[in-house]
Amino acid sequence: MNETPVKQQNSGAYYGQAVASFGIAMGAVSMGIYNMEVSGWVRAFLGIAVLYLTTSAFTLAKVIRDRQEVTKIVSRVDQARMEKMMAEFDPFAPK
Q: Over the stretch 15-73, which tens digit does the pLDDT of each residue have?
């Protein structure tokens, strides 16, 4: 049971679509906040709230990714240890 996980690589189109989507969303929210008929303080508050939400989303995505990577590494180390033990085991060796 020698399973080597395939490294997942995103295509350039997928990356471009993600960047474009992010840019369009930030632009649309910024335009909406700018065109609201409210005072400057309300616009500033909403702008800072959007920036805080965006940075929090990036941080959450990074934490989740890091946790998944650690789980994969620990699993691979455990698998390597088990394979080493199985390779060294000789059922016919005298006890």
A: 899 999 999 999 999 999 999 999 999 999 999 999 999 999 999 999 998 888 877 77
pTM summary value: 0.59
Q: b/e map of 73-92 (b: 16 or more CB within 10 Å)?
A: eeeeeeeeeeeeeeeeeeee
Report the alpha-carbon angle 42-48-38, nearest 5. 15
CB 43 within 8 A of CB 33: yes
Nearest residue to 8 (alpha-carbon basis) of 60, 65, 57: 65
